[in-house]
Amino acid sequence: MEAIMEKLKILADSAKYDVSCSTSGVGRRNNGRIGNAHAAGICHSWSADGRCISLLKVLFTNKCAYDCEYCINRRSNDFPRASFEPDEIARLTIEFYRRNYIEGLFLSSAVEKSPDYTAERILEALRLLRYKYGFAGYIHAKIIPGVSQEILHQIGLVADRLSVNIEMPNSESLALFAPQKKPKQIFAPMRQITNTLIERNSLVGPGTMFKGKDINSPENYLGVQQISSETKSFRALSTNAGRETFAPAGQTTQMIIGAGGESDKNILTTSENLYHAFKMKRVYYSAYIPVVKSDILPDISTAPPLAREHRIYQADWLLRFYGFSVGELFNSGDENLDPDLDPKVTWALRNLDKFPIEVNKAPYEMLLRIPGVGAVSAKRIVRQRRVSAVKFDDLKKMGVVVKRAKYFITCVGRYYGERRFEPDTIKNSILQMENGLQLSMFDNNWKALEAGARQEKLSAAGVI
User: Fold this and answer.
1) pLDDT of residue 140
2) Strand 409-411 and strand 414-415: pairing?
């Protein structure tokens, strides 16, 4: 068991750069209380209804045949290596589950020997977990680019979610930073997963169109020509297999931010294409953390571009849930998002001719474009105004961020923002409000820390 725990320590540490979940890094014994937390490999994910779910996040192996410039597990990097046996990861997962450490498994891997060799061992581990140990919990499995169609299909029948990491937003960056990976190896499994989901799980109907093209056809995507015979073969495989559910939670992918010279517009354009062409559940973004020395990567002392990652996530949210397109988020000359403002605010300031909007008359689609109004609060506004007019004082109760929204709306004909309705005035007011909020939060936290320190001193002195 000690050997397995040593492997877990190595392989959980190697998995922390995959951002599909956030590593908790917390280890606690219950000491008579209810519940435990194990630091190695435990991460948090969130369900659609907002519940926090603990997952065992680990690599199957970090022995990699590839030498990708950006990767901590690259072949030429000198650090501890380990591989699980299929039964080891299966037993580890079920024992963690029985102890209430976790609710599911997030299993990724480096490429040991070849994609098929590694994927076959992952498949064996997942089958043991499902059928030998009877585990019915959540499993997220990473698919290695270049894996055969048959193995991918079988993994999809035992996993809940699949993901193929694209890593780089264009073929030029992929060729520079990961020359052993080919675009076709990445997009072929993505297409197979999408088509299988369409046929088996009725994800979308046949003939779904995007930009005038059928997404089910093997068309030129991001400069990659899909092969018609490949598409037909895995369509036949999907149709002739049994009736088990294939990857019911869909597929995701990940892109690295800040390793190459790609612009925000380039990154988000690729994401927009992935959402439409492959029906991605989500694209994750990982601010590049310099972990290896390289002549073509940022210096090892460079700070990760976390603020940029945050803005890209905000823009991604607008693409997925608010009806925006990439073209709307950028001016003709802009290639990057405004680092100081939420992309929705930036868009609204560039389109002040559409504002202020009367909340009691605007269609739902336009309500979604008001800064400070979310999907839930927009629906509440629509429901409320069927009964009676929505007043300004009602908005906060509905979940609207009134401090931001007031500059772009009217309520019952009245405007509550600045007297000067112009971009610079509104922008400065919003920036002052947000900076003041951050300072206020900092002051409150500092006061709480000071109060805690005083409490400890009084306790130590025997005063309380």
Assistant:
1) 93
2) antiparallel
